[in-house]
Design brief:
By secondary structure, the protein is an alpha/beta fold. It folds into two domains: 220 residues, Rossmann fold; 225 residues, Rossmann fold (3-Layer(aba) Sandwich). The chain has 17 helices and 13 strands. The strands form two sheets. Strands 9-8-10-7-11-12-13 form a seven-stranded mixed beta sheet. It has a six-stranded mixed beta sheet with strand order 2-3-1-4-5-6, sandwiched between helices. A hairpin with a 4-residue loop joins strand 5 and strand 6. The radius of gyration is 26 Å and the shape is globular.
């Protein structure tokens, strides 16, 4: 090798001892996961802080992490009449009495947040404006002086797009108790005055304030500083995918499989679907294409292919075969929970009912069933997986679904769909294994401005292409 060529192909000599910079030392300090993390929101009113807070809380709870959101506005309204504390004058930094009341509300929320972390909480979300450096410095000081050492990460929501700000303002006026006794025009004028008062003193998070994530226009651009460990592995990718775009998300069980793989019907042999399953695939294709067309027509945008995610099982792939104009991905992340030695000979491939056959499991495997009930999320099936194992492999796919700006269809199996339905409906993860996931039923989730989802179920009649609907809120 010629002199100097090693520089270009990659030098092999080790780093010199003691050559670590201050930045490297800081990274080494921050990389290990802290016992508790405070995600402290920063931003002007009506920028989407509460939207992001609710999304983060839902996601972290779904990952099995003890999480709670602390909204300072709620504490303010509990301590002061909303008809007074909700008015723009209350947010004037020259109003000493109001400033003291706001400080008291923030202090109470901060105290409860630290108590939550002391009690075993893993993530606490502090939802407030925290719009000046002195307020954020006070939060950092409270954490530094606390007996237990937790990490603080600022999440600053910066929004300059007029349409997004106006949508956030409308949502705030409609749902905040601060404006319940005002007309729309009065509320809008007062909210604009409140925002102006915050803008006059606002200070963006600086490099010297520690770890932060900055979200521009609800994730059109993301900037991260000193974020390592769980923050970089999960929270940062999730926040990069979150947006306020409207699109339907459909979850459905793979069609009924053929019990006789040697069937003379070649379409059944190749697809893994029974005759009933093939009919369902046709009905599903009709449903998705019709709903996608409605979505694009209502949005006024040019139609794009529907994002389709299926497991790698033949009958799941075949269930989406009649969806036209699709962008399809087959992912093992959507494969059913590996049950190991449980169910051999009677529950090998698919579940024949709308919920898992726990009665049969308790009869055939009483020792496992007793242990499973004590910790249903983390108890592994002998030689197989636990529900938490499935959560871990599903995380990346869920982020892909959340980041999509067009309609999404997910075709999977009952154990996986129980966990996904729990996420979209905002249900306790501990209850997911009990959920019913009916056959021939499309679960639809529509994002809401509050960070949740409007959920409904559409029961397909395979022969007649008829749909029955029931609605829920998640």
């Amino acid at each position: 090798m010629a002199l100097g060529e090693g520089y270009y192909v990659g030098a092999t000599s080790p780093h010199a001892d003691g050559a670590r910079s201050k930045r490297q030392l800081e990274r080494e300090r921050l990389t290990p996961d802290a016992p508790g993390v405070a995600l402290v929101m920063v931003g002007l009113p009506a920028r989407g802080k509460s939207f992001i807070s609710h999304k983060l809380e839902r996601f972290l709870l779904w990952k099995g992490l003890s999480t709670r959101m602390f909204n300072v506005g709620t504490y303010r309204r509990q301590g002061t009449d909303p008809e007074q504390s909700g008015r723009s004058d209350f947010f004037d930094h020259n109003n000493a009495a109001a400033l003291a009341a706001r400080e008291a509300a923030a202090s109470a929320a901060l105290k409860d947040m630290l108590s939550f972390l002391d009690g075993g909480g893993q993530f606490a979300i502090f939802d407030a404006t925290n719009s000046v450096a002195s307020r954020r410095a006070h939060i950092i000081e409270r954490f530094k002086s606390h007996v237990n050492k937790y990490s603080v990460v600022f999440v600053e929501v910066i929004c300059s797009e007029t349409e997004v700000v106006e949508a956030n303002m409308l949502n705030k006026i409609r749902h905040s108790p601060d404006f319940h006794d005002m007309s729309y025009e009065q509320a809008l004028e007062d909210l604009k005055k409140r925002i102006a008062k915050y803008e006059s003193v606002y200070e963006t998070v600086g490099e010297d304030e520690g770890p932060y994530i900055k979200l521009y226009n609800l994730s059109s651009k993301v900037l991260a500083n000193q974020c390592y460990g769980r923050i970089s592995r999960s929270i940062l990718p999730y926040l990069m995918g979150v947006h306020i775009g409207n699109r339907p998300i459909w979850l459905v069980r793979a069609g009924v499989g053929e019990s006789n793989p040697q069937s003379p019907d070649p379409s059944i042999r190749l697809s893994g679907l029974s005759g009933v399953g093939l009919n369902f695939a046709q009905a599903l294709g009709h449903f998705v294409c019709e709903r996608a067309e409605q979505h694009w027509r209502a949005s006024g945008r040019e139609p794009e292919p529907t994002r389709v995610f299926t497991s790698t099982m033949a009958r799941a792939i075949a269930s989406a075969c009649h969806v036209s104009d699709k962008d399809e991905v087959q992912s093992s992340a959507l494969n059913a929970l590996d049950k190991g030695t449980i169910g051999v000979g009677w529950w090998d491939v698919e579940c024949r009912s709308d919920s898992l056959p726990w009665d049969e499991v308790s009869t055939r495997h009483p020792e496992f069933w007793e242990q499973f009930q004590q910790n249903p999320l983390k108890k592994c099936f002998p030689g197989g997986e636990s529900f938490m194992d499935v959560i871990q492999r599903l995380e990346g796919l869920l982020i892909e679904v959340e980041s999509s700006t067009r309609p999404v269809l997910v075709v999977s199996h009952i154990t996986v769909l129980q966990l996904l339905v729990a996420y979209f409906r905002g249900l306790p993860l501990e209850e997911a294994w009990k959920l019913s996931v009916p056959r021939h039923c499309v679960f639809e989730a529509l994002p809401s401005l509050g960070g949740g989802f409007m959920c409904s179920e559409h029961h397909l009649q395979a022969d007649a292409f008829e749909v029955g609907t029931s609605e829920q809120t998640g």
